[in-house]
C-alpha cells in the first residue's frame, strides 16, 4: 500500500470508501457529545460523518500526509499521527473504516483495541470483506492481502472478546468507464503496492477484465464492506 504517497489523490479515487464510511456512521450512530478515537482515519470521510452526529473525534492515522490532508478537510477533529496496529492509549470508544484488513494479524490488533476500551466500550468497525473486488481477484489471484468473509471476521471479533451487537454486509456495484480506470482508481487511492506483473501481463489482464465484466458503456466492480457495531466484554 502507498497511502502516504497517495494522500493528495486519495479523495478523488476513493468514492466507494467514502460511501462505506458514511454508511458505517449511519448504521449505528453515536450519541451526541460522545468521545470517539478514530483509527486509520485517512483524509476524514468517517471523521466528517461522526462530527455531523455531534461526536467529538480524535482522528488518528499512521500516515503523516493523510493526517495533513485530514486536518485540511475536517479541521474540527483533533488529528494525530498514530500507529493503530500496536498498543493504543485508553479510550471510551473506537471507530474505524477500511483499516483492519491491512494488518498482518488482525486478531492481535483487535486484542490491543479491546485492551484500550473499558468494559462495554464501543467499537464501530467497517472492513472490506468477500466478495469485495472478486472480479479482479479472480483474474489476478489473491495477492499479499488476505480476504476474509463475514463469518471469519465475526470469529476474529469473538476471539478478541468483542460482543457484536449488529452487523451486515453492504455491497455496491461500481461502474468504471473501463478496467484501466478501475486500475487507475485503485492506484490513485494508494491501495496497490509495488507492481507485481510485467506490462504484457497487465495489458492481458485489462483486456480480460474489459471482456468479462462489461456492463453498459463500462465495466463493473463489486465492492463489499462489513459493518460492525460491537462492545468490549
Ligand atoms: C483505505 S484507507 C481508509 C481511510 C479512511 N478510513 C477511509 O475510510 O477513507 C486506509 C488508511 O489506513 C491507514 N493505515 C494503514 N496502516 C495503518 C496503521 N498501522 N496505523 C494507522 N493507520 C494506518 C492509511 O494511512 C490509510 O489512511
What is the percentage of strand-forming residues? 15-25%
CATH superfamily of the domain at 10-129 and 144-172 and 225-232: Vaccinia Virus protein VP39
Level-2 CATH architecture of the domain at 10-129 and 144-172 and 225-232 = 3-Layer(aba) Sandwich
How would you sum up the global shape?
globular
Oligomer: single chain
Characterization of this structure:
The protein is of the alpha/beta class and 233 residues long. It has a domain at 10-129 and 144-172 and 225-232: 3-Layer(aba) Sandwich (Rossmann fold), CATH 3.40.50. Helices cover 37% and strands 25% of the residues. The protein has nine helices and eight strands. The chain has helices at residues 10-13, 15-27, 45-52, 64-73, 106-116, 134-140, 150-159, 179-188, 199-212, and strands spanning 35-38, 56-61, 78-81, 93-97, 122-128, 162-176, 214-215, 218-232. Helix 2 packs parallel to helix 3 (45-52). The two termini are 33 Å apart. The model has no long low-confidence stretch (mean pLDDT 94). Bound molecules: S-adenosylmethionine. Residues 3, 14, 17, 21, 40-42, 45-46, 61-63, 66, 83-85, 97-99, 102 line the site of S-adenosylmethionine.
Summarize the structure.
By secondary structure, the chain is α/β, with parallel strands linked by helices. The protein is built from nine helices and eight strands.
Amino acid at each position: 500500500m502507498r497511502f502516504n504517497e497517495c494522500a493528495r489523490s486519495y479523495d478523488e479515487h476513493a468514492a466507494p470508501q467514502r460511501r462505506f464510511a458514511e454508511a458505517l456512521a449511519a448504521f449505528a450512530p453515536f450519541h451526541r457529545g460522545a468521545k470517539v478515537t478514530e483509527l486509520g482515519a485517512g483524509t476524514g470521510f468517517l471523521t466528517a460523518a461522526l462530527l455531523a452526529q455531534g461526536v467529538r473525534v480524535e482522528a488518528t492515522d499512521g500516515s503523516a500526509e493523510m493526517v495533513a490532508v485530514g486536518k485540511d478537510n475536517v479541521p474540527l477533529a483533533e488529528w494525530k499521527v498514530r500507529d493503530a496496529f500496536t498498543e493504543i492509549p485508553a479510550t471510551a470508544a473506537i471507530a474505524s473504516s477500511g483499516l483492519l484488513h491491512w494488518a498482518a494479524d488482525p486478531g492481535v490488533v483487535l486484542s490491543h483495541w479491546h485492551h484500550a476500551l473499558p468494559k462495554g466500550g464501543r467499537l464501530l468497525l467497517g472492513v472490506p470483506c468477500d466478495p469485495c473486488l472478486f472480479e479482479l481477484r479472480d483474474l489476478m489471484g489473491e495477492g499479499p492481502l488476505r480476504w476474509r468473509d463475514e463469518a471469519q471476521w465475526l470469529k476474529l471479533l469473538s476471539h478478541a472478546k468483542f460482543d457484536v451487537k449488529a452487523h451486515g454486509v453492504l455491497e455496491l456495484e461500481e461502474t468504471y468507464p473501463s478496467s484501466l480506470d478501475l486500475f487507475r482508481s485503485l492506484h490513485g487511492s494508494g491501495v496497490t503496492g509495488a507492481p507485481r506483473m510485467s506490462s504484457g501481463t497487465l495489458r492481458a489482464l485489462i483486456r480480460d477484465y474489459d471482456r468479462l465484466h462489461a456492463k453498459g458503456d463500462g465495466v463493473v466492480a463489486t465492492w463489499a464492506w462489513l459493518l460492525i457495531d460491537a462492545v468490549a466484554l
